[in-house]
Amino acid sequence: MKPSKLIYALCIPAVMAVSCKKSFLDRPALDGTTLSNYYNTASEVRGLTATLYGIPWSGYDNRAMDCIGDVMAGNSYTGDGNADDAPFKNLTLTSGSARLAEAWKVFYKIGGWSSEYIKALEQKKASGTSASFIDPAIAECHFMRATVYFYITRIWGHVPIVTDPAGVALSGNFKIPRYLKGDVLKFVIEELKIAEKDLPESDVPGRLTKYAAKAMMAKVYLYMKDYDNARVKAKEVIDSKKYTLLDNYGSLFNSSANNNSTESIFAIQKKLATNPWGTGSQKQPDRGPGNLQTTEASMWELYAPTIDMRDAYESGDLRKSGSIMTHGWSHPAWKPKTGTADYDNFMANGYKYDTLQPAGGAGGQKNDTRSNIAKYVVGPGASYGGEPVLGMNTGINTMLLRYSDVLLIYAEAILAGAASTSNSDALAAFNEVRERAGLQPKSAITNDDILHERRVEFAFEGDYWFDIKRQGYVKAKALIQAQNRGTMEFSKYITPAYAKDDDMDLPVPATEALANPALLEAPVPYY
Question: What is the pLDDT of residues 130-157, one digit of tens each?
Fold first, then answer.
């Protein structure tokens, strides 16, 4: 049986020569240089690991991330005619899902690249190259490998661990078992401990530090319900004073000028470019309203907020306007034009989101939920009062871990599964997030308070499905069946057929199971 394309993808970048003169996102040049005559300087080594921050993530962060993290979770709506995405809304996924196959390939590719880089850099260090810049680079790879395996096990549960992809490819034995999800999470923690040890205290914006490793560890420990360790790691990040919340929540997501801000702990790095594919962010066209499309900016609103998500915000929550466009939402600096008199006159004083005006030439916006996602929409282009965009590409980073997450992890770790807490440290962290949103602080918090806060804080950031899933199948089912996943005209409710926690694990892509039948067998211990 032939191996899947994934196995080959894992082995591509064994050794690469990289220029890092312009930024750490510069593309590697595959010129066949060897370990003996390259990776002799910090710049060359950092150029190698820079390749893990950007383009390899593109098959996940543009659509699979939306489907898994938000459509399936009831935050994002997509039409039933959308064959690739509607099954996530209706929870009718099969192993033939293109989005699941894309995500699987991305994660194992990044894991494979990281593993090959670790092996190559260890060889380089053994040959006498300075550990002062080799060890931090190896630590970056361990962080990346940990992060993708955290995503893999949260999505699929029991999964393979591949730390020597080249060896697997050369052996010809592609029957790799699934390992118990508890063991995969243990592996993730071990990887993050290595990263924490050897990553620097600080680095240029966008690069990983040991506090990024601590923050990710806190998130993993929370998922494992290891509240003591989650609390300790989150507290270390808070006490470091390395991160702060931006005053304006919406500014995190409406301009690339705030890439790698003091709130961003780990982000997929983007550059405004159309080539190579995946260099720029492609979230804007999938989210932006159709009446904001211009000659510079594509908008086709593949995903929109659900009715349930629209109604989830408390009155006065400033995060709503930073996350969702509804009737009356505006952006005075954006002045799109189409050449149609009615539209151009309507938008003359800035973009207005209006569901009362007729759609089309008059400038109205009437989709199924009368709303659009505002996050990662940076506007109509430089000629129309926005920042530069190139069709479906923008330059805004995709944040995977923010400081507000650490604050809420800390509060939840102190709660530690109890009915409620009024612990002053938990409240201080929790209320710091609420107060930035313009809301009154709480004097006691419950798990439901934290879950709600996480939903509105991280809406459309690909995380809420994992928050639902870790509640266990009974509560997850109740949360899902209470959500209106329909339209303004027709409500829609679904009831998942969950009978155990493993039922929430998503199906392994059919192409992978065909290449590796062990993926359909019972999981085995890794340790």
Answer: 999 999 999 999 999 999 999 999 999 9
Is residue 25 within 8 Å of 206, Cβ to Cβ?
no
Closest CA to 429 of 231, 246, 202, 261: 231
> Do 487 and 456 belong to one domain?
yes
Residues 6+ apart with CB under 8 A from 35: 15, 120, 123, 124, 127
Please give the pLDDT value at position 37. 84
CB within 8 Å of 263: residues ≥ 6 apart: 243, 244, 245, 246, 252, 402, 403, 404
Residue 319, domain member (yes or no): yes
331 plus 374 within the same structural domain: yes
pTM of structure: 0.94
Asked if 337 and 452 sit in the same domain, the reply is: no
Are the beta carbons of 79 and 368 closer than 8 angstroms?
A: yes
Of 5-14, 305-314, 377-386, the poorest mean pLDDT is in 5-14
Within a domain: 421 = yes
Would 56 be classed as within a structural domain?
Answer: no
* 404 and 390 inside one domain: no
- Among 3-12, 95-104, 312-321, name the one with the lowest average pLDDT: 3-12
